[in-house]
Write a structure and sequence with these properties.
By secondary structure, this protein is an alpha/beta fold. It contains five helices and eleven strands, in the order E-H-E-E-E-H-E-H-E-H-E-E-E-E-H-E. It starts with a strand and ends with a strand. One of its GO terms (molecular function) is metal ion binding.
């Protein structure tokens, strides 16, 4: 099984190293040179995309997460079995998936006929992310999802909760995505509008991914192109 790893936080972000650890280092990294958080499914078609080969198993791409998937599957590693994206520093639940570059990378894979799994880590400040714990929890989820049959045109979206240090490993819950909007609040100073919506105060339908993850469990949803 050949696994492609990408993200939207950039190739040097700790989350993608945690994801690599979760699969025992047996993946090929094709990730953006820079951060593209919140870029959605943006792709590059009107200018060249520079590819920097760092090693036999690592490529830094001067493009978006969806660009990384396109290049990986068409040129750099066309024999890939799965595309894994993350671990994102921040949640990607419910309607977040339309904004997220992390999720766009695996949506692009599904469009191209390759299954994918996006993994994100909700951040509950002031707690600090323990990336070793994130790797352990992700390994547990991937051990299940990578062996499950998956319908063409679908992909998995995984969100890890942010727990207190020393907490037991969280339960994995398969659920539906929340359809409630994100907080849309701005502070106005003259002609400038500053976004001040609080992610942790978003509406949550009981039993959906936002509610499951905020309640301390790993939320897993299956999404369709």
């Amino acid at each position: 099984m050949t696994l492609i790893l990408t993200n939207d936080d950039g190739i040097d972000a700790p989350g993608i190293r945690s994801l690599l650890k979760a699969i025992d280092g047996k993946g090929i990294i094709v990730a953006p040179q820079l951060e593209w958080s919140g870029c959605g499914h943006r792709v590059t078609t009107t200018k060249p995309i520079q590819v920097q080969r760092r090693s036999d198993t690592e490529y830094a791409i001067a493009g978006t997460p969806a660009d990384c998937t396109r290049l990986a599957l068409s040129h750099l590693c066309p024999e890939a079995s799965w595309v894994l994206s993350g671990i994102n520093a921040g949640g990607n639940m419910g309607v977040d998936v339309y904004i997220s570059g992390t999720v766009a990378a695996v949506r692009e894979a599904a469009m191209l006929g390759i299954p994918g799994i996006a993994v994100s880590h909700w951040i509950r400040r002031p707690l600090i992310v323990d990336w070793d714990v994130a790797a352990r929890c992700t390994a547990k989820v991937l051990a299940d999802l990578l062996t499950r049959p998956i319908e063409p045109g679908t992909f998995w979206n995984v969100n890890l909760p942010h727990l207190e240090p020393g907490s037991p490993d969280p339960e994995v819950v398969f659920c539906q995505p929340c359809t409630q909007p994100l907080p849309v609040n701005y502070r106005v100073e003259g002609d400038n509008y500053y976004y001040v919506g609080e992610y942790g105060k978003r509406k949550r339908i009981p039993g959906t991914d936002v509610d499951v993850c905020f309640s301390g469990c790993i939320a897993v949803t299956q999404l369709r192109v």
